[in-house]
Structures are given as C-alpha cells and as structure tokens.
Amino acid sequence: MRSQFHPDKVTSQATKGYGRTMFNRLMSAAVSGCLLMLAGSPAYAYYSKDSYEAEVSFESRVEIAEDTPDYILLPSYINRQLLYLAGPLQAAPKKAAAKNDANVDILGRERDGKTGKHYVRYRYTGTFVLDNGLQDIVKVRLPLNLDEVWERSTDKCFSWGEKYRMAYFWAPLSKGCPLVDGVDYTTSNATILSKQTNTANTAPAYERLANASGEIRVVLTFGADEDRNGNVSPDKNSDYNAGNYRDIRKFLVNQGFKGHTVPVAERERDCGNTKSLAASPGHVEEYVRSDGGRRLVVRLFWGVTNIGEDSIAFFCMAKEAAERGSVFLYAGHSRVGLLDLTYMGEQIGTPIRMNKEQYQIYAFFGCSSYSYYNLSYFAAKASPADPEGRRNTNIITNGITGSFGSMTDFTTKTLKPIFDWSARGTRTSWQQIMNSYSERFLTGVNGDQ
Questions:
Q1: What is the pTM for the complete model shown?
Q2: CA distances (Å), 326 to each of 159, 266, 354, 362, in order?
Q3: 206-446, what's its fold?
Q4: Residue percentage of the chain with pLDDT more than 70
Q5: How far apart are CA 103 and CA 108, in angstroms?
Q6: DSSP E strands: which ranges in 132-178?
Q7: In the chain, where are the structural domains located?
Q8: Torsion of Cα atoms, 340 then 345 then 346 then 351, to 10°
Q9: Is the pLDDT of residue 445 over 50?
C-alpha cells in the first residue's frame, strides 16, 4: 500500500534524528529562504481552487533568558519559535500556511510577576495562504519555552509523531498530548487584514515555453521516500515514489514520446560539475517527441533528493532545469527549504545561473513548498527588466503536506496541457489546471498574471 502522506523531512548522516539537532540545521537554513524575515514582499497573482492569499497579523511572545541582548532576540528566539508555525496551521480543520515574507516588530520585554520568567513580545505581519473557509480569524499556537517543549512533548504532540517528531508536525491539540495552553504554548488570534482576489482567466505563456531553437525542455525529478532506495533501479524498487516514476514513464510513452537511458558520463558533461556522480548516480531517462517544427525533450530523474553529496545527481538536474529548461517539476520531500539554488550550486562545485530570458514553469509537489520554494525562486529569476522575477516565471506549490499517492495525478495534469498545446494548440487555463487536481493541499499557482 502506498503511503498517504508526504512528510517534509531531512535525512542524511549529518541530520539523522530530530529534536535540537534538527533545530540547529533549520536555523542554518534561514539564509536559504526557509525563515527569512523580510520587510514585506510584492503581491504576486495567485490562483487555487481551495485557498487564497491574505495579509495576516498576530502578536505573540516567547520565553527568553533574562540577560539576552537585543540583537539575539530575532534569530535565537523568535525565528526559532516560528519554526513551529506550520504544524498547528496544517493540523487545524481549516488549514493555512505562511509565505515567510513576514515583517517582525519587537514590542518589548516583560517579566511574569508570578513565575519570574522573562519574555519578548512581538508583532508578526505577513502573507498566509488560507483555506477558503477561513475568512476572519486564524488561531496561531506557538511554544513558550523552546527547550522545555521538547522535554514535555510526547509523540502524541506531533502528527505521525512515532516517525516524524519535528517542528513541522508539532500539533499540541492532538488527542493525548499533555501540553497545556498558557503553560507550554500560547494561542494568538491572527487577524486577516487584507485578502487578495484569486485570478479568474489566466493561462501559461505556452508560446514562450520553446527556446530559440524551437525546443521545450522538461525536467521531471522524483525523489525517493527513503534515501537508501534512491540508488536502486526504479523498476526493481518498492519505494513509495518509484511507482510514480514508472507511472509517468508510461504516461510519456502513451503521449507519443520515445525514450532511452542517459549515461552517467553524459550527465556529468552536461552538468559541468567538479564532483563525480558515481557514488550516487540515480537514474535518468530522456524522452523525445516532435510536434511539427517543435521538439519536446523530457528528462526523467529518479534518485536521492536530500542534502549533501548523495544528492549531487539531483542537483545537476536542477541546474539543467534552471539553465536550459522550460519546465521543472519536483516530486519528493521538501527538505524544509534546503533545496536552494545557491546551496545546490555550491554542492556540485559550479554555480546555478537561471536563464532569466526564458519563460519557465516550476512545480514543487512537496510539503509546504509554498513557504520554501516561492519567494527564493522568483528572486533568483529577477533582472533589471523584471525586478520581481515573475514576468518569466510561474511557480506551483503546496501549502500543506501532500501525499505520494497523489504525485502521478499532479504530474500528469500539470504536463498534459503543455503537451496538448504543443500538439494541437489547445490552451488550458491555469484555473482549469489547478481545478483538475484530485486532492486538496492548498495547491496553487504563484506569479499567475
């Protein structure tokens, strides 16, 4: 039976286990866009069948050491506390996710007269993607003491806590969780300040997908649920995501594509990296179809899509997509924002330079990719002629945890409109594409205009 859940996890020799070790890793990920506290961001057009964007504001507090200097408050306490934001938001009956474009204003310090504990108070204002059923107030729950919460929490305080005991899945209202409101965590009423209207009649810029040579290059990447399965052939593999890889191969063949395996040496030459792929090469097949004078090339990757050297083959695929591609689709664990272009370029030993002149569609079907792979990829695409990076970019994201069982549905329904346009000139709108997905994960298209 395939897993119904697609947890947002990081696993490597350096990050086995969670708790405080995971916190340290996540804190270092802040520069990768995971928790950047910005002074606000431009409003991007957005469409989803089950959600909308809005500016949200709430006040909260977090316990601090009495002698904490002011410059430590944001990185060491507030940002660290906000790592827990995703868990309660997606565990609620009506779900939401933060864009991580927030402005945080420190309101002051206070001492509790009864307990003697010291706190810093702050105001958070930023963009959320919200379930259509949320229209006025969003309940925000955050831990008060960031060290003691781990000691006092049990597996019952996390969604799927027996396996994924991490801040992303923290859920203090879960049945059996011993945490107490006002003692272990604080609850705030976040106010929805302004709502953005979803777009109504927009479409991908199909005509601009082809490059100057008339080629549309598509990079499809499927990451193994368990890293140990990433270097086993997808044809002899029981990994939850290997079945999706096989499904998409059949889909491509049924769409008239002809394929072959791409040798490792060829991929190394294409990548131009300084590190060999031999230790963890993954598996890549290339599928080609001609539509009149237009050529469609699809590179289909299976392998490890984590952090570190075991994922260099995947990083090379991300480089190919950024520099030569028209469409990049990622199906796998979100890795809490660590699949960052700058980081991946450093790992393969050569920078990843996005083709800022080419119109591209990015699709990240992972946990809360709305938070992780939204702003940073637009920023990487920005140029003097396109300072917001959205004229030549659309990004499809999930607001909450997706499932491996839905990845084939997501992939085929994202790609088929592109293939149909190339073959017959059919123009499927973004609204039709988003509405066609079978499951509800607050999935939407960003930069839709």
A1: 0.90
A2: 36, 20, 11, 9
A3: Rossmann fold (3.40.50)
A4: 90
A5: 16
A6: 137-143
A7: 20-195, 206-446
A8: -130
A9: yes
